[in-house]
Automatic annotation (TrEMBL):
It is a multi-pass membrane protein. Its EC number is 2.7.8.31. Residues 259-443 form the Bacterial sugar transferase domain. It holds the Pfam family Bac_transf. Keywords: Membrane, Transferase, Transmembrane, Transmembrane helix. This is Undecaprenyl-phosphate glucose phosphotransferase. One of its GO terms (cellular component) is membrane. It is found in: Membrane. GO terms for molecular function: undecaprenyl-phosphate glucose phosphotransferase activity. The chain crosses the membrane at residues 12-32, 38-62, 74-92, 104-123, 264-286. Coiled coil: none annotated. Its main location: membrane. InterPro entries: Bact_transf (IPR003362), EPS_sugar_tfrase (IPR017475), Undecaprenyl-P_gluc_Ptfrase (IPR017473).
């Protein structure tokens, strides 16, 4: 599940990447001889650094990460990067004085480690002195583990957690749980911590459903006697074990960067290679059949439920109910050219501009019009989970036949299930597979593409 952060927290890790790569390339330029001052070498060390860092979790440093764990990551990064650099020198270049290579790697890692620890301790100080970068939390339950977590939150403000309330569930458990959920919404709580020993399966599921549907983070204090069938994630706050119920690969910065680079390259190829000449042709055909703009824009809900304008080629005559009623089969509002571009999904192509702007991704859960999002959020369990990642032009649910008009609740329920599977199991290969199937389906034509 997405980690809610302070106002600027989302920039910290990309900033760390940038600083480290600058340091790395600067020392390569200052220390290594002239024959290493090639773009190919700088690209190699940058790429090698990122690949090693991704595999050992060098940038996986959170507010609760121990300093000893940070040093462990630094040591692993140092030795692996040194081996890869030495292998490159031995294979591609001749270096008479290997001490230069040792100096390059050592000085780079020393300064990078200093910067890493400086940021870590600066943020801890910033939270205490300025009260920023905090997450508002509540604890549900009682017992030794709850008392330990209360003490941890209260005694360690530098970790960035502000304990707002504790619901001990000692008296009238059902009422207290309802009060807790209401409190979380009214007080804009970011995270809920539940002691599993005080909750039965029904109550656990109630908290899971509530947090999924309201974009809150849920974590558990484990009971050693409990057995879990889910693929749970364990973290430690000091020595207190904490369980998270969902892992979202796109929460990881390297994955975000990979997906964003892919989105930019793919959208540029479509915009330059296809839309540059197709748009004028469609503009003429659309205007010849009906008056109005070439493009149709509509508010949709995207990442974190934020609203954005989604663009399409206009396929309907101008009407006042476009933002209220979804298109149905044989809809009289659809024009002749509109029927063709909808059948072939050409009407969706302007959304590549949304991708380029960062509102959407090529692959992701399909965004709904705002009025429908609000309706489904009330009716369909876990519908809001799809807003933990960017919406897409196409998605896994669409390749499985759940696209277009929602005729029954079954359609939207299965769409949500596939969307959740996608966000929990994302990979670039899965994106490529979905794009390939989408292209094949567009060529063949789909029954629900109307």
């Amino acid at each position: 599940m997405a980690k809610k952060t302070g106002r600027y927290s989302g920039y910290i890790r990309p900033f760390s990447y940038a600083i480290d790569l600058i340091i790395l390339n600067l020392f390569a330029w200052l220390i290594l001889p002239y024959n290493f001052q090639l773009i190919s070498f700088h690209l190699f060390v940058s790429l090698a650094w990122i690949i090693i860092a991704t595999n050992i979790g060098f940038y996986e440093v959170y507010r609760y990460t121990k300093v000893s764990e940070i040093f462990s990551k630094i040591i692993k990064q140092y030795f692996l990067f040194f081996i890869v650099s030495f292998a490159y020198v031995g294979y591609f270049e001749k270096l008479s004085d290997t001490s230069k290579l040792v100096q390059f790697v050592t000085y780079s890692l020393f300064l990078i480690s200093f910067a890493k620890l400086f940021i870590y301790y600066f943020l801890r100080k910033y939270r205490v002195v300025f009260g920023g970068n905090f997450r508002r939390v509540v604890i549900v339950g009682n017992g030794k583990s709850v008392d330990q977590l209360k003490t941890f939150f209260n005694d360690n403000p530098d970790y960035g957690y502000k304990l707002i309330n504790v619901f001990d569930l000692v008296q009238n458990k059902k009422k207290q749980i309802e009060e807790c959920l209401d409190f979380v919404m009214k007080q804009k709580i970011d995270e809920i911590y539940c002691a599993l020993s005080d909750l039965n399966n029904t109550e656990v599921n109630k908290f899971i459903d509530f947090t999924d549907n309201n974009l809150k983070i849920l974590k558990f204090l484990p009971d050693n006697k409990e057995l879990f069938s889910r693929n749970l994630i364990y973290d430690y706050y000091d020595y207190i074990p904490i369980i998270s119920i969902r892992n979202v690969p796109l929460d990881e910065v390297p994955n975000k960067i990979i997906k964003r680079i892919f989105d930019i390259i793919f959208s540029l190829l479509i915009i330059v290679g296809l839309l540059s000449w197709l748009t004028p042709i469609l503009a003429i055909l659309i205007r010849l059949e009906s008056k109005g703009p070439i493009f149709f824009k509509q508010k949709r809900n995207g990442l974190n439920y934020d609203e954005f304008y989604c663009y399409k080629f206009r396929s309907m005559r101008l009407n006042k109910i476009a933002d209220l009623y979804q298109v149905s089969k044989n809809d009289p509002r659809i024009t002749k050219i509109g029927k063709f571009i909808r059948k072939t999904s050409i009407d969706e192509l302007p959304q590549f501009f949304n991708v380029l702007l960062g509102d959407m991704s090529v692959v992701g859960p399909r965004p709904h019009m705002v009025s429908h999002t609000e309706m489904y959020a009330r009716r369909i369990d876990k519908f809001m989970v799809r807003h933990f990642i960017k919406p897409g032009i196409t998605g896994l649910a669409q390749t499985k036949g759940f696209r277009g008009e929602v005729e029954t609740d079954k359609d939207i329920i299965f769409r949500v299930k596939y969307d959740i599977f996608y966000l929990e199991n994302w990979s670039l290969f899965l994106d490529l597979k979905i794009i390939f199937i989408t292209i094949i389906n567009a060529i063949k034509g789909e029954d629900k593409a109307y």
